[in-house]
Amino acid sequence: MEPDRREAERAGLCATCQYDRIVRSDRGSVFHQCQRAATDPSFPQYPNLPVLHCRGYELKSGGQASNTSGQK
Ligand code: SF4
Question: How far is the CA of 47 from the centre of ligand 1 (A)?
Answer without folding.
Answer: 8
